[in-house]
Design a protein that fits this description.
alpha/beta, Fumarate Reductase Iron-sulfur Protein, Chain B, domain 2, Rossmann fold, six-stranded parallel sheet, 36 helices, elongated
């Protein structure tokens, strides 16, 4: 009950952000512009090769972290720097406060530092009676507003120029116009004296180079150079994850960091600092420099076989830039201090499970973050694993426990689905939708119509369909998942007829069940594993060349997650590898394996568009196959804007966060309607459910189908 109450309160907070029209428009504009800028910045670079290099270089640091830290410390100290190691945030803050006391520092200027935000450094210093001023424009704005950053790179992206104008009017005591250039000049004027009067400057660092004791800072404002040079004391607070062996390694990261963060080839300022002698302040004063190297959970991650890949993070913030949930609610709701996908993970390690337990459920599992990560981190997998750990530590909510128990028992699960056919009759319409929802349970879900369970599931139709194929070209096993088996069996039937006409022999093992992705998304690791075992064993004795599924989410989960779930059982792992090697999505099988072409279809020229399921375009890396099939089928194909952005379904996500799901769906359908398409096609039954239900509520005449249905309806009949 407490978990349900917490989630309800959290959803209310989400709604506050959804109601902020400026925030949503601002983040929408940025998200669209970011993709174009990033593509241009990487235009002549092998982005995947570069990311692989960064990942390999960062991974190679892990076994020698202690050695690199010692090397960095010795070289920095030899150059006149004092190096300190802090085990946690409290110790780091205490060290810096003591440095201020020992050096007689009263006034402090800071350059933007997420690590200082992580430790809440400003609060500690102010508690010691010190004056602390942020000098990065965005950081200064949020400091004045007593807020945290809403983005790792652009901390004040959530604010309008009018809000900043009003804020600066209060600060200066004079009316300030909401003109960006003028507001920047106001900030410069107000901050200029702070630099001159400061006793201490505090920065973060993007790199800590072991073989020279150098730190590197990557910024777009000149304030970092003023902070490191004008005050007589400079303190750099940096995580131990910033260690790299050499300048070459730092430059490799520098090549990807600004491109991935903001679509720039290079930032305005890249600053390298080696030793106190190089940083002498104005006059003849001796410069005093301190590097405070922070652990705060990082070494625990480094030792973890799975979470050690978090060390690859270069803090570019790109995982937020492409996240459809962040795009709706911003960083103050999609993070604690660190935001976006990486923030969901770091919050758990840096700030504990209590801060992370609601945040972690924000992930819709669209894999956009993984697709764009500069370090190649498997962010969705880590987010799911954090969810598992939190539930193992804090207890499992009753709904996820019940679902896990049901899915583990295939016969019980299928019996419940069959029973639902009878239970739904009082609210079932003749068009395949429920006439109205039992609003006591679903009042927030009224943004889309919900489908009814089919009268006859595919597994019951199979006996009527199955027939021998003479001299088959290929043998395939059909994996239906639960939705196409019990809700949309006509999709499976369409694929059956299409394949049969191309001499594909098919089998359908009755022991197969749900792929298990829903319970994995709910943090039920054991149930996920049990379901995986069921399905691998169901196909174990099938003599097939491929295992074809019409659900992109099922295909991605079967291929990528089953080996992970069953990796601790060597005997089962071998069977799983054999199983996953045969798994293929419908469009890839139809286009790449069967080689279906225009001569196989009789087109009607209807205008059509395609929504690419997240797990098809990113999970499986399939982009062109379905679009080529639709063109070959004689449809007038029209590409919709943001066709590869999530539709908002996300399985259990849409049940937990219907308000967010509704807004994502609205954007998707707006883009679809602009194309003038009469048919909207996709390769995932969950997306069909979301899109068809949304269009039904709009009263739209656009027909939503699975690609298999469109192809089967236009197949050229043998003469």
């Amino acid at each position: 009950m407490q978990d349900a109450k917490n989630l309800k309160e959290y959803r209310k907070e989400m709604q506050e952000s959804l109601d902020n029209e400026f925030l949503r428009k601002s983040l929408d504009t940025f998200a669209v512009a970011y993709r174009a800028s990033r593509a241009k910045a990487f235009a002549e670079i092998d982005v995947h090769g570069l990311i692989a290099e960064v990942a390999a270089a960062k991974d190679s640091v892990l076994p020698k972290l202690d050695e690199l830290y010692d090397q960095f410390r010795k070289n920095a100290e030899a150059a006149g720097v004092q190096v300190h190691f802090a085990r946690d945030a409290e110790e780091a803050n205490a060290i810096i406060a003591e440095i201020a006391k020992a050096t007689g520092s009263k006034k402090i200027v800071k350059s933007k530092s997420m690590t200082a935000e992580e430790t809440l450094l400003n609060h500690t210093l102010e508690d010691h009676g010190l004056e602390v001023t942020e000098t990065d424009l965005g950081e200064w704005i949020i400091q004045l507003r007593h807020e945290g950053p809403s983005h790792m790179v652009m901390p004040a992206i959530h604010l309008s120029r009018y809000q900043v104008g009003d804020l600066f009017s209060d600060v200066t005591g004079a009316k300030q116009e909401p003109d960006i250039e003028k507001l920047v000049k106001v900030a410069r004027r107000e901050l200029r004296s702070k630099f001159v009067e400061a006793d201490m400057g505090i920065t973060g660092a993007n790199f800590a180079i072991a073989d020279t004791g150098t730190i590197g800072l990557v910024t777009n404002e000149g304030n970092a150079r003023l902070v490191t040079t004008l005050p007589r004391v400079h303190v750099a607070l940096l995580g131990i994850d910033k260690l790299v062996p050499s300048l070459t390694d730092a430059l490799r990261i520098l090549k990807v960091l600004p491109r991935n963060a903001t679509g720039q080839q290079i930032t305005s300022y890249v600053t390298w600092i080696t030793g106190a002698n190089e940083c002498a302040a104005a006059g003849n004063r001796k410069k005093e420099i301190h590097f405070v190297v922070l652990d705060n959970g990082r070494l625990e991650m480094a030792r973890d076989p799975l979470f050690s890949q978090v060390f690859r993070c270069v803090r570019c913030g790109a995982c937020a830039n492409v996240c459809p949930v962040y795009r709706l609610v911003g960083g103050h709701k999609m993070g604690h201090i660190y935001i976006g996908a990486i923030g969901l993970i770091l919050t758990y390690f840096f700030h504990g499970p209590e801060k992370a337990k609601n945040l972690i459920q924000n992930c819709i599992n669209c894999e956009a973050c993984k697709d764009i990560c500069a370090g190649g981190i498997d962010l969705p997998r880590l987010i799911k694993q954090v969810h598992v750990r939190i539930q193992d530590e804090k207890g499992h909510p009753l709904p996820s426990l019940l679902l896990g128990q049901i899915l583990k028992n295939r016969k019980l699960f299928h019996t419940l689905l069959r029973t639902a056919k009878w239970a739904q009759r009082p609210v079932s319409g003749e068009d395949g939708f429920m006439r109205h929802l039992p609003m006591m349970f679903f009042k927030e879900h009224d943004f889309k119509a919900l489908p009814t369970v089919a009268e006859k599931p595919f597994r019951d139709r199979w006996q009527e369909l199955a027939r021998p194929i003479d001299n088959p070209r290929l043998r395939v096993g059909l994996f239906s998942g639960c939705v196409q088996d019990f809700v949309y069996p006509e999709q499976m039937e369409a694929a059956f007829h299409l394949f049969a006409e191309h001499r594909v022999a098919m089998s359908f093992p009755m022991a197969q069940s749900c792929c298990g992705l829903p319970v994995q998304m709910m943090g039920e690791a054991k149930a996920s594993r049990d379901v995986a075992v069921q399905n691998v064993r169901a196909f174990e004795k099938e003599n097939v060349d491929y295992i074809v599924t019409l659900c992109a989410s099922c295909a991605s989960h079967l291929k990528h997650n089953y080996p992970v779930l069953l990796g601790d059982d060597q005997k089962m792992l071998e069977k799983t590898k054999s199983f996953t090697a045969k798994v293929i999505d419908f469009s890839s099988f139809a286009h790449d394996v069967l080689g279906l072409k225009a001569e196989d279809f009789s087109g009607d020229g209807k205008p059509a568009t395609f929504h690419s399921p997240c797990h098809l375009c990113r999970g499986l890396g399939v982009h062109e196959a379905p679009r080529a099939l639709l063109r070959d089928a004689g449809l007038d194909y029209r590409e919709a804007d943001e066709s590869e952005v999530c539709c908002g379904f996300g399985g259990t996500f849409s049940a937990k966060f219907p308000e967010l799901s509704a807004e994502m769906l609205r954007k998707k359908l707006d883009h679809v309607e602009v194309t003038g398409a009469e048919i909207l096609l996709t390769d995932c039954p969950g997306c069909v459910m979301q899109l068809r239900g949304g269009l039904k509520k709009r009263g739209s005449q656009i027909v939503v189908q699975h690609t298999a249905e469109a192809l089967a309806a236009r197949r050229r009949k043998p003469e």
